[in-house]
Amino acid sequence: MKPTLFGRGAGEGLGVHICTGPVYVRGAEPGDILEVRIVDARPRPCANPKYKGKSFGSNAAAWWGFHYKDLLTDPKPREVITIYEIDASGERNWAQAVYNFQWTPQTDPSGVVHKIIDYPGVPVDHRTVKENHGILKNVRVPIRPHFGVLGLAPAEADIVDSIPPSYVGGNIDDWRIGKGATMYYPVAVRGALLSAGDSHAAQGDSELAGTAIECSLTGTFQLIVRKKDTLAGTTLNGLNYPLLETQDEWVLHGFTYPNYLVDLGPKAQSEIYQKSSVDLAMRDAFRKMRHFLMTTKSLNENEAISLMSVAVDFGITQVVDGNWGVHATIRKSIFAGA
Question: Which of 70, 122, 182, 201 suits 40 as a labelling partner, its CA being 20 to 30 A distant?
Fold first, then answer.
């Protein structure tokens, strides 16, 4: 199959993520909120009988990683893949590194040479790489299965790069978006058009090197349409960003540009990669949390600012997705005296 639209190779798309969707949600209209309950997220077992009961995932320390131009040891620059083993049965809640190798130019089935990791799913000819075994000895990485990409279609563009997240969610890359969590998204187009993908076995805040432990997950979701005329007086009234709820916490997601497709104009999908800023993402998260506390908890601005300083945790969600993210977390127990 020859590339046609973007020139990225067979199976091309705008962005790098393998996603399921878009799923049309009957009854969802602009102005509504789509509630997405993540009922389950579990590693999909390997199909090779030799590795029955196991799953494997890969972590790429890639050219788009935050570390890439700040390496200490030679060769510089370099991209390194680390393979992790995961227990698909769920009996072991940690992943273990198996081996790593440095990326070498790879030729895909279409004959395109990939000197760097520039396209997902390129088969690696292991005759061209050196596997380094016995790495990360005695290290157990906690398993936190989640979906890096989960969100809706924006109204501002017909074809959207899957990499930068936005007000309708998408590639948020927050490890908290896993089993037991509920996400709320503002619906921007009829049918909402929900997509899920970029599944991860584990990830730390920041996703510093460019990827998590990328693996295959099976997800179970429950979708609920919250109609706009029922939102008055609720936490969801006026919601214009992706909101995460767990049993114990609310997590608000801020970005360098809350709606980069509007904020950056006609060239937004290229310029977003040149303008990322943790400072702006922090300010967006602060503004969203201030609004959340003033509207849903009826605090005045002075109260909200004080509470944010003493009880809200701000963290760097990711610094690798073009539109960088900062999340703000507040525990529900803070309001237990109400």
Answer: 122
Q: What count of residues does the chain have?
A: 338
> Of 142, 168, 187, which closes a domain?
142
Domain containing residue 164: 19-42+156-196+217-332
**Closest C-alpha to 195, from 24, 35, 321, 13:** 24
> Rounded to 5 degrees, what are φ and ψ at 216?
-95, 130
Tens digit of pLDDT at every position of the chain (338 positions): 344 455 555 555 667 888 999 999 999 999 999 999 999 999 999 988 998 888 999 999 999 999 999 999 999 999 999 999 998 887 889 999 999 999 999 998 888 899 999 887 889 999 999 999 999 999 999 999 999 999 999 999 988 999 999 999 999 999 999 999 999 999 999 999 999 999 999 999 999 999 999 999 999 999 999 999 999 989 999 999 999 999 999 999 999 999 999 999 999 998 999 989 999 999 999 999 999 999 999 999 999 999 999 999 999 999 999 999 999 999 999 998 87
Distance, in Å, from the CA atom of 168 to the CA atom of 243, rounded to the nearest integer, reads 10
In this structure, the answer to whether residues 124 and 166 fall within a common structural domain is: no
Residues 6+ away with beta carbon under 8 Å from 237 = 231, 295
105 located within any domain? yes
| Residues 107 and 166 occupy one common structural domain | no
Q: Token digits for 6? A: 């973007």
Burial environment of residue 296 by CB neighbours within 10 A (0 to 12, 13 to 18, 19 or more): middle
Whether residues 179 and 324 share a domain: the answer is yes
Tokens of 171: 């590639």
Residue 262 lies in a domain: yes
* The Cα angle at residue 236 between residues 235 and 242, in degrees rounded to 5: 115
Dihedral, 34, 246, 255, 293 alpha carbons, nearest 10: 90
